Amino acid sequence: MRLSRALRDPFLVVAYLVLVAFLGLFVVYPLARAALTPRPSDWAKLLSSPRWIAAMEHTLAMTVLSTVTATAMGYAYAYGVTKGRVPGARLFSLVPFLYLVSPPFVGGLAFTLLLGRKGIVTHGLLGLDVSIYGWGGLWLAQTLSFFPISFIICRSALANLGGALETAARGMGAGRFRVFRTVSLPLTAPAIAQAALFCALSVMSDFGNPMLIGGRYRVLATEVYTQLSGWADAGMSAAAGLILLAPALVVFALQRAATGAGERYATVGSRGRGIGRDDDVSPPARLALAAFCGIVAVFVLAQFAVIAYGALTRIWSVDGTFTLAHLGAASKYGREIKDSLAFPALAASLCAAASLASAFLVQRCRAPLAPVIDLATILPAAIPHTLVGLAFAISFNGKPLDLAGSGAILVVAMAVSYLPFGYRAVMAALAQVKPSIDDAAAALGASRSRALFDVILPIVRGAVAAAFVFAFIVGTGTMSAVIFLVSFKTPLASVTILNLAEMGSWSDAAALASILCVLAFAGLAAVRLLAGRRFFQAAFR
Amino acid sequence: MSPESTVPASGGAGVHVALRDIVKSFRGVPAVRDFSLEVARGSFTTILGLSGCGKTTVLRIVAGFLDPDSGSVTVSGRDQADVPPDRRGIGMVFQDYALFPHMSVLENVAYGLKTRGVRSAERQRIVAEALESLGLGELGARYPHELSGGQQQRVALGRALVLRPEVLLMDEPLSNLDAKLRVRVREELKAIQTGLGITTIYVTHDQEEAFALSDLIAVMDGGKLLQLGDPATIYRSPRDGFVADFVGSANFLPAAAEARGAGSVATRTAAGTVWLRAPEGSPTGPGRAMARPEWFSLSGPSPTAGPSDGSLAVPAVVEGGEFHGARIRYRLRSEAFDEPIVVDEAVDVRSAARPKGARVLATLPAGTGWWIPG
C-alpha cells in the first residue's frame, strides 16, 4: 500500500502511532480483557439465578420507562422554548444545561433530601413517612436526569425547522395542531429517535441514581459494582457489564444509523424563516407549555436549592439554623477536592489532544485504518462507564501494565470515557473548515503538521477547548468511571459524597456537592464562552 | 527552499508544465481519463468545462493535492510524483479564496514567506509592496470577513504571488464575484499575469472568461480533453457539436458533404448547396453545417432564386427577436429546416427591430460556416 499522503509528515507519523497505541492499549485491550474474564460458569449463573434475571428485567423496564418519559419531556420542553415561545425562553433554555453539567449525584442526593424519609417535601411538608427508594423514585430521577439530553437534540432540530414549512402548511389551510401533527412532528422524528437512543444508552448504564435511590431495585449497572466490591467476583462482575454492553452496542449502532436520517431531514427543513412565528401554538397551548416548562425548571432548581440549603443549615431536617460550618468542614476534604480537580484536568487535556489528533487524522488526512480509528474513538460512547472502570481494574492490575491505585489509571479512564464527546465536537468543527484551507496552507509551503498548528487548530480551538472543559466538568463529578479505580491514595470528592450520603452525613455531603456544583457551573460558563451552545449539539450527535 | 531556487536554469520559452496520460478515478468512478496537456512557459492556459467534467481534479493533481492513478506531471522537465504539494513551488488561488479566517490580510499574505523562512524585516517589505501594488495598502490589519468579495479575491491572489511561484493555478477565482466586478478583476488579472510573465493554468466553466484571458483553451468533458486551441480556433472551428454548443450559440443545419476542396467542403442542405470550412481530411457523407448567429447576414426577401457562389440563402419568417443592445437576436422559421435559425444582426441607435412575421433572407456566405461530420 502506498504511504498515505498525510503521513509523509514525520510529526504526524508519530502522532498517528501514539494515537493507535493509545486506542489499542486503553480502548481495545481492556474491553477484550473484560470480555474474556467471565468463566462459562459465570455466564450460566448469570442466566439462571433469579437475582440476575431480576436485575436484567429491572434494567430493561427502567430503560424503557425512563427513555419514553425523558425523551417526551425533553421534546415538550424544547418545543416550549422554540415554537411555543414561552416567556423567558432564554432562561428556561439554560436550566437543562445547568442540570446536565451538574455532578450526577446532585439528582440522587437532592431527591433524597427532598423526597426521602427525612425529605423536606415528604417528611417536612406532608409529614409522611414514605420512601422514594425503589423503582418509582428511580424512574422520576432518571427522567429528570436525562431529559436535558433530549432537550438539546430536539431543540436543535426544532430551531432548524425554521418556520417556513409551518407557515406554508398554515397557508394551505391546516389548523395549528394539524400542522404540528403532520409537519413539525414528522420532520423532527429523526431527532426524537436520536434523543431516545441517547437517553436509553444513558439510563441503561447510569450508576449514580440507582446507587443512591434505587434501593433494593437492583439494576445491572449497580450489580456490576456490588459483585466486585462486595464479593470480589470479577468474573460475574464482568459478565454483568458485558450483558449491559450488548444492548448498548445495538442502541449505539441504531443511533449512528439514525444520524444519517436526521441529516437528510435537516437539509430539507433548515431553510427559510416563517412569517407567523408567534402563531405556531394557540394561546391555551402556550400557557400549558409555559406551565410545564415552569414546573420542570422549578423541580430542577429546587434540587440545587436543597443541596445549598443542606450545606448551609446545622443539622439536616432537625436544626435549620444557618451555618458555614459544613462548608468549613469540607476543607478537611481538601485532598479530595484537589484530586477531583487535578485528575480531571489531566484527563481533559489528554481527551482534548486525542480528540484533535483522531479527528484530524481521520477527517483530514485519510490516514491508514481511518474507519477503525474512528470506531475505536467513538466506541466508549457505547460502553457503560462502569464497564470502562471495571475493564481498567481488570486489565491494569498486574502485568504487562500495573496501574492499580495510581492517579494515572483514573486519568486515563476518564479520558477514554469522555473521548467520544470531544471527538464528535472537534469533528463537527472540522467539518465546517473547507478543505481548500488545508490545500491553501500546503500551496503556501506549510507541511501537514505545520498547517495543523498554524491554521486548523486556531480555527477549531473553540471546539478543542470545549472538549477540554466538558471532560473536566464531567470528570469532576463522575462516579461510574472511577468507582472501581479509586484508592486511599487517590480519593475523589464524588466518591466521598457517595460514601457520606450512605453514612447519613447529609450536611457534609451537601456541602461538598455544592462546591463541586459551583465548579461545574463555572465550567459551563467557560464552555459557552469558548464554543457557544453549538458545542453540546455537536457532542450529542 | 527559497523562491529563487525554483526558477529553472533553462528559462525562456518551451514546455513548462506537462501532463501526460493522467488517469484518476474516485471509488471506481472515472474523473479524468488519459488527459495530456503541455503548457508553454509564460502562457495562460484555461481548462474549460462544465462542472463535474474533471477540470478541478486536473488542477489539484498539478498542485499535488491529489495523486493520479497513472500518468505523470512534470514541471520544467522534473517529475513531480514524489514532490509533496508544499514543496512544489506552485501558487494557487481557490474558488472560495481559502483565506485563513483567523489571520489578518497582512498575516495571510506573509504566511507563505514565513513557511519559507524569509526573515521578518524582509517579509514585511515584500508584503507591504505586494499589498500596495494590489491596492490593498490600507487593509493590512483587516480580517478576511471584513473585506468585500473583490478584496478577498485580491488578497488570495497576492498571497499566492508574493512567493513568486513558477506556476500559478487558479480554480474559478472569479465565480464568486458579481458580473460587473468579474469583468474588472478579469482585466486586472490578465494585466498582472502578462506583467509577471507567470505560467498560469486557469479553470473555469465560463467560456467568455476563457476567451478573454487565454492564450490556449483546453475544452474538457467527461474527464477527457476534447479540444486544445487558441480562443478563435475553439470558437470558429470546434472539433465537434459539443464544443461548438458549449463555447457559444450555434446553428446546426443538417447537410451532406459532396465535394472536397483545400480546407473546405461543398455540402448539400435542404436550402441549397453551400461551401463550408472543414478540417483537413474530413470524410464526405452526412453531417452538420455549424454557423454562429453573427455569421449570417439578413436582407429583405429576394424574388430571385438562390445564389450560385457557394453561399447559403435561406428564405425565412421572423418568429421573434431579443434586444441585446449592440445587436438583435432573431429567431427565424424557414421551410427548409425543422429547427429555427438564430441570427444576430448588428444595430445602431436608429435601427428598428424587424417585426414578427416579416419575411427575410438569411445568408451564410461561402467559406464561413464550419463542417462537422457525422
Describe this structure in words.
The complex is a heterodimer of chains A (541) and B (374). Chain A is built from 23 helices and two strands. The radius of gyration of chain A is 24 Å and the shape is globular. Chain A has two domains: 1-36 and 328-541, Orthogonal Bundle (MetI-like fold), CATH 1.10.3720.10; 38-265 and 276-311, MetI-like fold. Chain A has helices at 10-36, 40-48, 50-81, 89-101, 105-115, 120-125, 135-160, 164-171, 176-205, 208-213, 220-231, 234-269, 283-312, 325-329, 334-364, 370-378, 385-395, 407-431, 435-443, 448-477, 493-503, 506-531, 534-539; strands at 313-315, 319-322. In chain A, strands 1-2 form a two-stranded antiparallel sheet. Chain B has 374 residues and is an alpha+beta fold. Chain B is built from eight helices and 20 strands. Chain B has helices spanning 55-63, 105-115, 120-133, 149-161, 179-196, 207-213, 231-236, 241-246, and strands at 15-26, 29-40, 44-49, 70-75, 78-79, 90-93, 167-171, 199-204, 216-221, 224-229, 251-261, 264-269, 272-277, 285-291, 297-299, 312-323, 327-334, 341-346, 359-364, 370-373. In chain B, the strands form four sheets. In chain B, strands 6-7-8-3-9-10 form a six-stranded mixed β-sheet, with helices on both faces. In chain B, strand 12 and strand 13 form a beta hairpin. The longest helix of chain B is centred in the middle third of the chain and has 18 residues, at 179-196. Chain B is elongated and about 80 Å long. The chains are: A mainly alpha (541), B alpha+beta (374). Chain A binds chain B through residues 2, 5, 8, 434, 436-437, 439-447, 450, 454-455, 458-459, and chain B through 1, 60, 63-65, 67, 84-87, 90-92, 94-96, 98-102, 111-112, 115-116, 159-160, 163.
